[in-house]
Amino acid sequence: MPVLDRRALLAGAAATGALAVTATRAQSDRVSAPPPDLSGKAIMITGCSSGFGRLAAEYFARLGATVFATMRNTPRPEAEELKQLAADDGLDIRVLRLDVLLDYEIEDAVNGAQLDLGRGLDVLVNNAGIGITGPVEVQDMEATRLAFDTNVFGYHRMARAVLPEMRARRQGHIINVSSQLGRVIIPYSGHYSATKFAVEAMGEQLAYELVPHGIGVTIIEPGGYPTEVWVNRNRYSSELKARAEQIHLAGYPDVVARMGEEDGSGRSAEPMDVPRAMAKVLGMPPGTRPLRVPVSGGSIPQTAINEVSAKTQVDWLGQSGYGPLIKAVHQV
User: Fold this and answer.
1) What is the edge-to-edge ordering of all strands in the sheet holding 172-177?
2) How many alpha carbons lie under 13 Å from residue 125 in its C-beta half-sphere?
3) Is 178 a residue of the active site?
C-alpha cells in the first residue's frame, strides 16, 4: 500500500479543493470553493492515529480550529508525530488518549477538553471505527461484539459525553462518519453494514431529538478510500479466520480464502475529500447543515435511498406532533 503524503494532501486542501458531496436533497457534483474559516471552533475527533481522523485533525487546525485529536493506546508514534507537527507549524492540536470502548477514557478526555476550554465543545466528529470482513456465519461473538462496540456503542458513548454541555449552551454539531455501506450492502462484509446502518438510524433519530436544543447532526457517507483502514481490517479478519471453527468456514471456501487479503492500494480517490466535506458542513450556518453527505471518488449508489428516506419521513410524520422536528432536519 502506498504511503499517503498527508502534508501534500493538506497543502492542496488549504487553498481550494474539489470535493464530491451529495446532500440528501442535492445532485452529486464537484464543488470548488475556498475552505471555510473554523476559527473559534473547538472540535474533538476520535480515531486520529491515521486515515480520515488524522487528516481532519490537521486540516481543521489549519483552518483555525482548536482540535482535540484523540486516539487509543497512547503514547504511540502517531501521537508524537502529530504533537510535533502542531509545535512546528503553530497549530492548536491537543492530542488526548481516548479509546471509544472505555467509558473512563472518554470521560477523562471530554472533561479534560472542556476544562481546558472553560466551556463545552462545539463539534464532535465520531470517526473511530473498524471493519471485519467475511460471511456473517463466520463472525463469532468476539468479532461481532467488537464491531458493534466500536462502530455503534462508541459513537453513542461519545455523544452522551458531549451533549450535556452542548445543550447547556444550546449549540453544537455532531458528525458521524458512516459509509456507503450504511445504506447499501455488499455481500461478505461481515457486520460492517449492520453497524453502519445502526449509525445511520441513531444519527437521524438524534438529529430530530436535538432540534429543540439548537444542536445539529450530519452523517458523512464515504465510499472506498485508500486509507490505513485496509491494514487494520486485514488484521482483524485474519485473526477471525484463524480462530473460526471449520463447521462455519466450510460453507464459504472461496470467500474465506480472501479474508485478510484485501488490497485498498488500487483505489485512487483522494482521502482529503472527507475532511473537506466535513469542513464545508461546519462552515454552513446552523440550521442549514444537511443530515446526510455522501462523499466518494466514484459512484454514490445511496443517493436515491437518501432521497426517498427523507421524503418518507416527511410524508409520514410531517403533519404529526413530530412534524416540526422532522421538517427542521430535512429543511422542508
Assistant:
1) 93-97, 66-71, 42-45, 123-126, 172-177, 215-222, 292-295
2) 29
3) yes
49 included as an active-site residue: yes
DSSP for 86-112? HHHHT--EEEEE--TT-HHHHHHHHHH
Catalytically annotated residue among 179, 189, 196, 225 = 196
Residue numbers of the chain with a pLDDT score lower than 50? 1-31
State the chain's maximal CA–CA distance in angstroms: 57
Exposed e or buried b per residue across 243-263, where buried means at least 16 C-beta atoms within 10 angstroms of its C-beta: ebeeebbeebeeebeebbeee
Secondary structure letter of residue 243 according to DSSP: H
For residue 124, what pLDDT is reported? 99
Segment (H or E) for 286: none
Answer yes or no: 192 catalytic. yes
pTM of the model: 0.89
Give burial (CB, 10 Å; 0-12/13-18/19+) of 186: exposed
End-to-end CA gap in the chain: 45
Q: Quick check: is 238 catalytic?
A: no
Residue 330 has a pLDDT of 98
All domains of the chain in start order, with CATH:
6-299 (3.40.50.720)
Q: Are 41 and 33 in contact (CB under 8 A)?
A: no
Contact 56, 30 (CB under 8 A): no
Per-residue pLDDT, 229: 75
Catalytic residue, candidates 59, 155, 192, 208 = 192
Q: Which residue has the cell 464515504?
A: 222
Catalytic residue among 178, 179, 193, 237: 178
